[in-house]
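Q: Given only this backbone (294 positions), what sequence would you predict?
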């Protein structure tokens, strides 16, 4: 019994540390392979919803205590971050719920991968039964695509049409061949942002898993007692808590900036046109024009 419990805290293998980069299929549903990362992602998503609903019911006018105050602090941090990125905080306030949800979803998925029993200790069909959702490249690419679709739709909506949205890619006159080529390059670069978000999150989480697995294995070589292995990996596990929070923050701040860049540039362009028209229509200008005409 003690040995079976201890196995949940170690991933030591006789021929070296087990490293799983690709997800494994747990079962087939309607002809679709449901991988271990999808199963665990569903579980964490459900638990996250239940947990955050419980926290929302605990929120009061006065700051709460315990874990509620940390969730409130996280919400306030992300909300201030989103609102402060836009020139008009009212615009950013509309997207706070989406980015707060993305932040907590990524954070909880990153941290849930460090729970004992996730990974090699529990296996099915020769692969781990559970795998962190953010350690699956397919999952992070899907997250990146969802975020960028939201960014594109919101950008077009905020700037007032797709023509105005495309305008911010072209710094000068689009009839100028140089400006036109630069604009096309900017558009192609913009399309790679989803892949950039996905790779950054996936690589950091996966590399953290590999480092923990390696030092767990080394701990097993130093002492053949199963409880020693997780102790050698403990510093890196604690480090991954910080890395998981940092990667959730980076994912959200980059996504917010992608949206804010297009919205702010469009509003700045409209403001500059408005200022030019206002300057032309000032009483001094009108009077000068009248004297010239006279």
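A: Predicted residues:
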């Amino acid at each position: 019994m003690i040995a079976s419990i201890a196995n949940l805290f170690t991933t030591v293998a006789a021929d070296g540390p087990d490293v799983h980069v690709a997800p494994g299929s747990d079962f087939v549903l309607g002809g679709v392979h449901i991988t271990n990362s999808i199963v665990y992602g569903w579980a964490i998503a459900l638990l996250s919803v239940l947990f955050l609903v419980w926290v929302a019911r605990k929120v009061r006018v006065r700051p709460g205590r315990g874990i509620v105050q940390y969730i409130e602090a996280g919400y306030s941090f992300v909300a201030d971050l989103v609102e402060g990125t836009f020139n008009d905080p009212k615009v950013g306030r509309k997207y706070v719920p989406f980015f707060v949800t993305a932040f907590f979803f990524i954070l909880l998925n990153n941290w849930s991968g460090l729970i004992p029993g996730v990974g090699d200790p529990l296996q099915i069909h020769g692969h781990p039964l559970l795998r962190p959702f953010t350690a699956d490249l397919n999952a992070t690419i899907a997250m990146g695509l969802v975020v960028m679709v939201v960014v594109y739709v919101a950008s077009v909506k905020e700037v007032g049409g797709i023509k105005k949205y495309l305008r911010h890619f072209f710094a000068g006159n689009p009839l100028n061949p140089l400006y036109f080529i630069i604009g096309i390059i900017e558009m192609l670069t913009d399309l790679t942002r989803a892949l950039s978000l996905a790779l950054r999150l996936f690589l950091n989480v996966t590399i953290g898993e590999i480092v923990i697995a390696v030092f767990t294995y080394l701990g097993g070589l130093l002492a053949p007692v199963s409880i020693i292995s997780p102790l050698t990996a403990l510093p890196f596990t604690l480090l991954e808590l910080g890395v998981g929070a940092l990667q959730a923050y980076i994912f959200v701040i980059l996504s917010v900036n992608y949206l804010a860049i297009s919205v702010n540039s469009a509003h700045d362009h409209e403001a500059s046109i408005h200022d030019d028209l206002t300057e032309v229509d000032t009483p001094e200008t009108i009077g000068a024009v009248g004297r010239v005409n006279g």
